Each structure stands twice: as structure tokens, then as C-alpha cells.
Amino acid sequence: MINRVVLVGRLAREPELRYTPNGIAVVTFTLAVNRTRTDKDGNRVADFINCIAWRKTAENIANYVKKGHQLAVDGQITTRNYEGKDGKRVYVTEVLAERVEFLEPRKDARNTVPNENDAPPVNSNNSKPVNQPSDPFARETKPIDISDDDLPF
């Protein structure tokens, strides 16, 4: 069975950060995701999808993302239910955001959010990742003589 969701959209409202009685951070937010179709006036139709994130991801979202910011969310659809104040059963379907990417351009380098799964940082001219060895043949002026017999495949 597969339960995987990938969304790219804009935050429809400010994220709401709370903590469980055990001190675990949880944030809820709504992502506005455009559909491919348009309405009769030619405007894009959007779905408003409720999302939830936990722990460090929740704190990062609450601290660094505002209404209108663009996000990419990778997660899964979850359902839960609880008894409402009126005594009726309330059913909730939402996306459990397991990985979130902030897609807005950074105005300040201090707005970067470290993530344990992130790739190595990229240098300022975005040409290659930091710590990647330089091209050993960059200064070579003569053609490199390689025949098909020299290739390992």
C-alpha cells in the first residue's frame, strides 16, 4: 500500500504552533494548492489542504514561514476523530507533513533553517556544492585521448 502526498502551494493563513502536555511541538497550517483547471472567469481554482507537522519541523514552520509563503510538503494523508464540544463525533482528514521545503527566496542568509536531511550547502555563485572537488581537467589544453576500450562499461 502507498500513502504518499507531495504538494506545492502557498500558506493560506498563519501557522498555529502548540505543544502537547509532554512538550512536543505540533503546528497546523493550511496550504492553498492551485488546480490545473480554471473557473469561468479564467482564474485558477485552489484547494485548501489542512496539514500538520510535529517536533522540529513544526517549530521551523512556525518560526520561519508566514501567510503567503510558498512551501513544498512531502507526507501522507492521515485521518483522526474526536468528540466535539457538542458531543458529536468530528472526523478530520489532513496531510502529515514529514518533510517541508521553504520555496521563498531568502532575503537574509540568517533565515536558513538547518534540516538533518539537507544536502551540503551551496556556495554563493551556485555553480557547485561546497566541498566538491574541482575539475582536474579544467586547465588541460590538449584533447584527452580516450578510446572505447578504456571505458569500464
Number of strands: 6
Order of helices and strands: EEEEHEE
CATH architecture of the domain at 1-104: Beta Barrel
CATH topology of the domain at 1-104: OB fold (Dihydrolipoamide Acetyltransferase, E2P)
Average pLDDT figure = 80
Fourth CATH level, the homologous superfamily of the domain at 1-104: Nucleic acid-binding proteins
- Under CATH at level 1, the class of the domain at 1-104 stands as Mainly Beta
Q: Report the structural category.
A: mainly beta
- The CA-CA distance between the termini, in Å, is 37 Å
- Main beta sheet strand tally, sense and closure: 5 strands, mixed, barrel
> Whole-number radius of gyration?
23 Å
Regarding quaternary structure, what we see is single chain
Main β-sheet, spatial strand arrangement: 1-3-4-6-5
The gross shape turns out to be elongated
**If helices are DSSP runs of H or I spanning 4 or more residues, what is the number of helices?**
1
Amount of beta strand:
35-45%
Q: Tell me roughly what share of residues is in helical segments.
A: under 10%
Low confidence ranges: 109-130
Keywords:
single chain, single-stranded DNA binding, 153 residues, OB fold (Dihydrolipoamide Acetyltransferase, E2P), 1 helix, mainly beta, five-stranded mixed barrel, DNA damage
How does this structure look, described?
Strands 1-3-4-6-5 form a five-stranded mixed barrel. Mean pLDDT is 80; it is low at 109-130. The chain is elongated. It is built from one helix and six strands; from the N terminus they run E-E-E-E-H-E-E. The protein is mainly beta. It is 7% helix and 42% strand.
